[in-house]
Amino acid sequence: MPSEMTSYYDIDDILAEEELVSVVFQKAVNGVGIDPSSETDSVESGSKVELPFWLAQELHLRQVAVMGLPSCFNQRTRLEIQADAAFVDLRSRCPFFYEFGCKIAPLVGDRTIGSWLLSTFKSRYKEVLTKAHTAVFAASSKYLALLSKEETKMYEAAQSSMTAFKKWRMGGPRFQKASFLSRKRKSSD
Amino acid sequence: MLPNTTETLLVRGCCRMLVESYRRCRRSSIAARTDQRHTAVCQPPSAFRRSTTQGSLSLDFSVYLCLYLTNLQQLLYLCPPHLRLDASTAQPSWTVAAHRNLAVEMAGQSDPHLNLFSAEEVEFVAEDEMVEIVPNMRMDSLHLICGDYGPFYPQIATEVPLWLAIALKKRGKCAIRTPEWMSVEKLTQILEAERESQGSFQILPFHYVEISKLLFDHARDDVLDMYLVRSLIEDIRDVRFHKVEASLGSIDTRTSAVKIKDLSAMEVNIVRPFVIRALQAIYKHGNPELVPDQDRMTNVQPQGHDHGQRRPLRRR
């Protein structure tokens, strides 16, 4: 798929795939040391293991293991987001909430994830915009801790364009100090 | 009429460079003009000369550049790159498509913040707006690539672009007439109308933020009631910006587009990085999961059934 190729070198895309997923093995597998404390290098069928998504995905596609729904997409989180989407701490749940959701949705077979991600994003992005343009820097750090990485990027984009505008408005010849003023004072000292 | 990819690439590569050299050219030609006591004929650098045959390539570029810069004004439609505009909702001209291609390509590669223009660049574009000046010297007409201006006679008003007006003003050669909309009465009217109408924006010049700033910076003595005018414009800008924020709250998910009428250049420029990202995210979450996911589900199952039915057939 072309969309996957464009994000091939994207570091965030790689990091999003590091997220742990619980996996149930359907087949017994030999020669893998997933659990370092186990005595043998084999995994029995039916054992439940937490694996990073990139590995779980491959195993899932080869039908060796079945992926479970991660906790950040469970019913409890959904209820919380329904209650007040703007102040749910997405970062602690999953730093790449949207990206990860997009990746896992077709594999888990939960069709509601797509529309749910959209509604979550829609109810959160406006808050991001208003906060980015109005909040003072010190006050914003508390709010920033709630955002997922994707939202943080948007926040920073909005804030940097606003600060660039403010800088431009304050700049120019109006507020520049004449150079001879400072020079004169130095010589008198 | 669609520009092909090589042209797009060329324009993309040369755009920033051209802006720089164009700016330098403007400055240097003005300096030459005024320093030589109005005797020498104004000569822009050869790359920008109109008549020469060797200049044809660079002329193409400058034409593209002009198109490129003016398209910004038409592009109040902020669309994600994937979305195709249908003919009913947008101007069907290729320029919009070309601009969006350029915008997306440039933004994706060079600037991590997807901020296509800096505030200074928007100001640069605004300097091409026309203003009226009253010169206090006599000078022949100027033949520049953007047009012919003048001749200039003392106390007789002429129209020149803002950059030229400022350059002359700095040398004390003219007084700039403030535009009509920059009077106290007009601005109070606009501010009141702006506060009353919640959904729509009042019609102001596309570059009102930049023009007013440039005039406040360089022609303070020509603006009547400068402090009042300045605070009025600040108020108008604040009111409008809050409206922009409010109207961005209602992005249409079905079309993944925002339509806000009568925005000004600077306002668009401030919200652009955010809006592009938001629209991209909405497009991403809105489309690919809902539609192909169901397709995949329905496609996979019948195949499985097919296999089940075919096997007994082969055995027979």
UniProtKB/TrEMBL annotation, chain A:
CDD domains per the UniProt record, alphabetical: GINS_A_psf3 (cd11713), GINS_B_Psf3 (cd21693)
Keyword Nucleus in annotation: yes
Record InterPro entries: GINS_A, GINS_bundle-like_dom_sf, GINS_Psf3, GINS_Psf3_sf, PSF3_N
Limits of the DNA replication complex GINS protein PSF3 N-terminal domain: 9-59
Keywords: DNA replication, Nucleus
Intracellular or extracellular location(s): Nucleus
Residue stretches making up the GINS subunit domain: 73-169
Major localization class: nucleus
A Pfam family per the record: PSF3_N
Family recorded in the similarity comment: Belongs to the GINS3/PSF3 family.
Protein name: GINS subunit domain-containing protein
Automatic annotation (TrEMBL), chain B:
Compartments where located: Nucleus
Start and end residues of each stretch annotated as Disordered: 290-316
Keyword Chloroplast among UniProt keywords: no
Domain called DNA replication complex GINS protein PSF2 N-terminal: residue spans: 119-176
Keywords assigned: DNA replication, Nucleus
Predominant localisation class: nucleus
Superkingdom per UniProt: Eukaryota
Alphabetized SUPFAM superfamilies for the sequence: GINS helical bundle-like, PriA/YqbF domain
GINS subunit domain residues: 181-275
InterPro entries attached to this UniProt entry: GINS_A, GINS_bundle-like_dom_sf, GINS_Psf2, PSF2_N
Family in the record: Belongs to the GINS2/PSF2 family.
Official protein name in the record: DNA replication complex GINS protein PSF2
Native source organism of the sequence: Citrullus colocynthis (colocynth)
